[in-house]
Amino acid sequence: MKKMLLAILVFATVNLVASDINLWKNSTLNKVLERGELQVCLEPGYMPFEMKDKKGRIIGYDVDVAQLMAKEMGVKLKLLPTAWDGIIAALVTGKCDIIISGMTVTQQRNLKVNFADPYLVVGQTVLMNKSLEGKIKSAKELDNPKYTIVTKLGTSAEIAIRKFYKKAKIVTFETEADAVSEVLNNNADAFVYDQPYNILFMADKGKGKLVHLDTPLTFEPLAWAIRKGDPDFLNWLNNFLRQIKGDKVVDFYGQINDKWLKDTTWLKRVQ
User: Fold this and answer.
1) Starting from the edge strand earliest in sequence, which strands make up the sheet with 98-99, in order?
2) Annotation: CATH topology of 124-218
3) 109-127 per-position pLDDT tens digit
4) What is the CATH number of domain 2-121+222-270?
């Protein structure tokens, strides 16, 4: 009987070890290390997180994070520009290892991918046509059939405006730039999008032309997305995030926030 119990314990231990080995072997993290390259899906065009400079190079908040991530892994970084409406499919089908592209965590997206802990929390705010200054004092007052509200197709901003605005006319566009241009050109009354983008837009092209209703409509955590069933990669990413947030000596997290979310000198590189 003792021999049988010992045999069962040995068998169970061997199976557990084999299972752990298989999990690690199939982990994205292990494949990245073997390949020597971290492949990141992102959509350039979402300032200040990822966009192209005058020379066509992809720069931004998320790019700096991805570069540090690859450095800590000891691998090269490969950025893969991907259309937003196909970015989750690209990840799920193995065309990249991770999405680092200012992606908001939503329950619908979480059904398809897993998210690391949020690295930043933003909300949707409103850039309003200056002609409405004084007439409209809060975002909710725009919910009127006579007003047209625009945003980018397939984003959390679209989800937000369809939730909060039941009476106003809603129009979506392929890019943020196309959508906000409608307000600048007096073809729409308001543009709804992520607060960091709107703050930077007001510091540049929107100055004196638009009104920023800066009280967020929503609570939106941004996070990195990976394929499901990969605890090793998720563990590494969350530890990496805790390290860069908690290290006050290097303070990479504070530096990157100041560089891209407070200072606007980088705008000269993309104009």
Assistant:
1) 76-81, 37-42, 98-99, 225-226, 114-115
2) D-Maltodextrin-Binding Protein; domain 2 (3.40.190)
3) 999 999 999 999 889 999 9
4) 3.40.190.10
